[in-house]
Amino acid sequence: MKKIINTPERFIPEMLEGIYAAHPDDLTFAEGDLHCLVTKQKQAGKVGIATGGGSGHLPLFLGYVGKGMLDGCSIGDVFQSPSAEQMLAVTKEIDQGAGVLYIYGNYNGDIFNFDMAAEMADMEEDIRVESVVAGEDVASAGPTAEGEPNKRRGVAGIFFVYKCAGAAAAAGKSLDEVKAVAEKTCANVRTMGVALTSCTVPRVGHPSFEIGDDEMEIGMGIHGEPGIRRGKLVPADEIVDEMMEPILKDIPYRAGDEVAVLINGLGATPLEEQYVMFRRVKQILDEKGISVWHTYVGEYATSMEMAGASVSLLRLDDELKGWLAAPADTPFFKQFQL
Amino acid sequence: MNADKLRGLLSAWAALMTEKRDWLIELDSVVGDSDLGLTMSDGFTAASEAAAASDLTDVGKLSYQAGKAMATAVPSTMGTLMASGLMNAGKVLKGMEDAADTDFFQAYLEGVQNRGKAQIGEKTFLDGLQPAVEALKQGKTPQETVEIAWDAFQHTKGMIAKHGRMAIRGEASRDLLDPGAAVAALMMQGYAGIPA
Q1: In this complex, do B76 and A84 lie within 8 Å of one another by their Cβ atoms?
Q2: Which residues in B lie closer than 8 A to residue A81 (C-beta atoms)?
Q3: Which H or E element spans position B106?
Q4: How far apart, in whole angstroms, are the C-alpha atoms of residue B90 and residue B75?
Q5: Could you say which residues from 58 to 97 on chain B have a Cβ atom under 8 Å away from some Cβ of chain A?
Q6: Is the per-residue pLDDT at B135 higher than 80?
Q7: With an 8 Å Cβ cutoff, are B116 and A113 in contact?
Q8: I need a surface site. Which of A186, B28, B155, B182 has the fewest CB within 10 A?
Q9: What mean pLDDT comes out for the span A4-25?
Q10: pTM for the structure as a whole
Q11: Which domains does chain B have, with CATH numbers?
Q12: What radius of gyration, in Å, describes the C-alpha atoms of chain A?
């Protein structure tokens, strides 16, 4: 293990101390617990939006707490859910009487704890909480059948859900309206990833999985969950072709549709390679007559030092374009009005 | 079940999970991320300590508090599920100083099931606890239910996992024992060991 850390045990608390030291005007924490991060830039009367999950994915999750996006985030140890109690502390801090929306990724540990936190908020604090669980990784499970729970993992595409729901909340929409925007965004975003190397959880000390120097795994999750195919590394265009096919098949796209694209680096893949990937994504979309309304390239949801990337497509209509275009200002994401 | 009996039960569970920690770790390492032994010993210890430190006589409120302490101590999947059992028993028994043991266990079972959304037969903790709770309800002694729970644990071999990491193995999961059901059997063993 080769990392710039002091001790594995102090890795997350010290990371958080650094975050608060770097952004003293924007971020603070609730109930004396560094893991309960909340914005200092409160907007009176608006619906609060909270997220949370394990550490190891920066800028996800806490990096999107700020104006026009999220109000709070509870953070667990590396790849471990925070507790319901910590989620409740954040919920109490960000509720301004308009209720709180939880937006988080589709993982059992997070679901159980957020559900418990929502019950506690209702039972103990009389705060109304609604939840939207994002799961858009097309490699992780098939499409959701009618009446069945969504089995797909939530990955980088949750950025779009934060962005659109956050803009709706900032515009003064009600809890039900903000939830509807979040659900609509979830329904229109799809992601597929590829991993080239493993990450190492500091307290474990060795790579989470073995993969050969000349291998890649298409569809691997951001904690190293198994993908759909492991094989020899091939040129970028072929990788992107294999990732784009299931994404485009999963929603019925028509010529003339507009999308936002997110190319997301998993931690150790340089921007140069991400732009090589986007070049091919744009070619494929051009061939299908799908126009790219806006593009984001960079690290949005990482897996520590894992090499690899994901492609997310958000199918847009006028409403979603409006929310995506709104300004945002968080420590890790800033955007002027598009 | 009253507050003092619940304190004794949680203390017995904490001691047993600590004693069997390495065995649970080994069992879980085959199918999960091998933290089950740690979360169960740490979690039930936290629940037991919270109950011991409280002077509540309301068995429901005490169970809820113990569950919250466990949820905070071990927010992993299995930790949260076990805490949900205690918290639901708390909600159901709230306002009571004495309740039937079967009501406590039934509420515990439902709390875990409502949180995890698993069905019977899907190779989980429920497949260990549910047959034991049914036996208790039919008048079997706690000692008799211990054997029933261990049998039920053995019978998770043969079931296809629908939840958690084991589910990824699909058909191949049939050959494996479910570590969650082992926790259920240990719980019944702890229950049989305390004064009725």
Answers
A1: no
A2: 75-77, 80
A3: helix B101-116
A4: 19
A5: 68, 71-73, 75-77, 80-81, 83-84, 87
A6: yes
A7: no
A8: B155
A9: 97
A10: 0.92
A11: 3-192 (1.25.40.340)
A12: 19
One-letter amino acid for residue B27 of the chain: L
According to DSSP, residue A10 is labeled G
- Residue A203: band (very low, low, confident or very high) from pLDDT cuts 50, 70, 90: confident
* A&B contacts, CB < 8 Å: 49
Q: What single DSSP character describes residue A331?
A: S
B113 touches chain A (CB under 8 A): no
Q: Does domain A189-335 have CATH number 3.30.1180.20?
A: yes
pLDDT above 80: residue B165? no
Instruction: For A294, list phi and psi in degrees, rounded to 5.
Output: -155, 150
Angle B192-B193-B195 from CA coordinates, rounded to 5°: 95
- The residues of A whose Cβ lies within 8 A of any Cβ of B are 76, 80-86, 108-109, 112-113, 115-116, 120, 149, 225-226
For residue A171, what is the DSSP state?
Answer: T
Digit-coded pLDDT (tens) for A275-305: 999 999 999 999 999 999 999 999 999 999 9
Q: What is the mean pLDDT of chain B?
A: 94
Choose the closest CB to A85 out of B68, B117, B164. B68
CA-based nearest distance B75→chain A, Å = 5
pLDDT bin (cut points 50, 70, 90) of residue A1 is: confident
Is the pLDDT at B168 greater than 80? The verdict is no
Q: What is the pLDDT of residues A99-145, one digit of tens each?
A: 999 999 999 999 999 999 999 999 899 999 999 999 999 999 999 88
CB contact under 8 A, A116 and B115: yes
Measure the CA–CA gap between A84 and A116, rounded to whole angstroms. 6
**Which residue in B has a C-alpha nearest to residue A76's C-alpha?**
B75
Q: Where are the beta strands (DSSP E) in chain A?
A: 27-29, 36-39, 48-55, 72-78, 100-105, 129-134, 189-195, 215-218, 229-232, 258-265, 291-298, 308-316, 328-329, 334-335
Residues on chain B touching A226 (C-beta within 8 angstroms): 168
- Third-level CATH fold of A11-187: Rossmann fold (3.40.50)
Q: Which of A130, A98, A165 is nearest to A322 (CA)?
A: A165
CB-CB neighbors (< 8 A) of A84 in chain B = 71-72, 75, 80
Collapsing DSSP states into helix, strand and coil, what is residue B169? helix
Q: How far apart are CA A278 and CA B64, in angstroms?
A: 52
CA pair distance A243, B180, nearest whole angstrom = 36
Indicate whether A206 pLDDT > 80: yes
B50 interaction partners in chain A (CB closer than 8 Å):
none
Residues of chain A positioned with their CB less than 8 A from the CB of B72: 83-86
**Beta carbons of A116 and B116 less than 8 Å apart:** no
pLDDT tens figures, A169-184:
999 999 999 999 999 9
Residue of A nearest to B77 (CA): A109
Distance CA A265, CA A310 (A): 7
Domains of chain A, residue spans: 11-187, 189-335
